[in-house]
Amino acid sequence: MTIEQRLNRLERQNRRLKFGGIVALLGIGAVFLMGQAKGVPEEIRAKSLVIVDDDDRVRARLGANELLPEHTELMLTDASGVMVAYLRAGEHPFGASLDLLDQYGARISLRAVKDGAALGLNSAIVGGGQISMLAGEGGAGLELGFSRPEATDRTKQIVLPAPYQPGITLDAYLKDGASVRLHDENGNRRATLGVEDLINPKTEVETRRPENSLVLFNADGEVVHEVP
């Protein structure tokens, strides 16, 4: 092969390399321009969003509740998989709620109920203290009681209102008046100061005691003393 032939072949190879480089640059530029034109997606659709850590452990989940599909929930968990925060929005009677929990099960609950809102403070210890406050249309209520076994299934990540048995109940309503009720360790009503609706077990007739009344009950719920 002569020198002239070699030069011609090199020129052809050079032209092909230049053409390939131009095509590559045009392709990169087209992709860049398409990305610029598209910008940030206006909408992302998914049934659920799950966030995991470096060890592939679920730390957050956003989606529909498995048992109540009409409810949307956001759950946050710690490194051991224990739920520490739960936000839910749905239909009555559950409504919207926010639960904050520690690793032992103590809980702060804020709930939107029909025509009002409720706040609950729950101990993690069975028999520990619990405070429930409710403010709604026409009045408010306060309950001091004792926690019962936790109704939170953290394995299935389901949160239900914490069960309790009341100790002291205070109610103040515009139409029904005010009352203070005392309960025993079994949750049975033992005394009421103020408004109370009593049903005669023989006649099944209901009578309302006034706000200045005191009614005492035995463990079976029977009236043993009334003043006046």
- Name the overall outline: elongated
Please give the share of residues in helix.
10-25%
Computed over alpha carbons, the radius of gyration is: 34 Å
How many alpha or pi helices?
1
Order of SSEs: HEEEEEEEEEEEEEEEE
Question: Can you describe this structure in just a few lines?
Answer:
By secondary structure, the chain is α+β, with helices and mostly antiparallel strands. The chain has one helix at residues 3-38; strands at residues 48-52, 58-64, 72-77, 83-89, 96-101, 107-113, 116-122, 129-136, 139-147, 164-173, 177-183, 189-194, 196-199, 206-209, 214-217, 223-227.
Describe the structure in your own words.
Residues 19-25 and 150-158 have low confidence and may be disordered. Helices cover 16% and strands 45% of the residues. A hairpin with a 5-residue loop joins strand 15 and strand 16. The protein has a domain at 48-175. It is built from one helix and 16 strands. By secondary structure, it is of the alpha+beta class. A 14-stranded antiparallel sheet has the order 1-2-3-4-5-6-7-8-9-10-11-12-15-16, with no helix packed on it. A two-stranded antiparallel sheet has the order 13-14.
